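Before a colleague's protein record goes any further, I have to sign it off. What it holds is a sequence and that sequence's fold in token form. My question to you is simply how this chain folds and whether the tokens agree. Thanks in advance; the entry in question is below:
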Amino acid sequence: MKSQDIVVLLKLISLQDQELEKGTDQLRSESLGGDPYSVRNLEALLGISKTEVGQSINRSISSGIARKDSKSNEPRPRRRNLVNFITNGLKFVFPAHPGAMQRGIPTAFAAPMLESLLMSAGSYNYVWPYASAQEMGQSIDPLFRSVPEAVLKDERLYEYLALVDAIRLGNQRETELASDRLKSRLLAK
């Protein structure tokens, strides 16, 4: 697996959730070529090349974290397997190391949708480096370089990736809180 595989899988879940909320027709009308799950549309939404998206989906299918839908042939993440990997293994496979202070998009518990969940004294905010952002914090390398721009287009993806970073960065209490919230978001559907 590569780190961008997690980004692609979480985007697929975000698209599935949007499809449930908006309906298939509206989601298709908003997508390039009418197919929200196409590698072309995922490339536009994530800033990951079509080749890399295709390879990512193939790796995820071969590892059992995703499958091809039998009717539509669209990639479908196996949510429980993905949650198990993120909560139990991601921190070890793709660890996060806080870097220098810089401008960026808040992540982990500094993200706007998560900041009220945990009060931690004396710690810096964490950010994905992004020159156009206003927030300052300790930089964290995102799972893929295009994550800061991708999350500006999709608030649900932003929440998922911020929770993933909280798991990658957190101590036991923070990791458990982020894991519980991620499970409730991904497995409730």
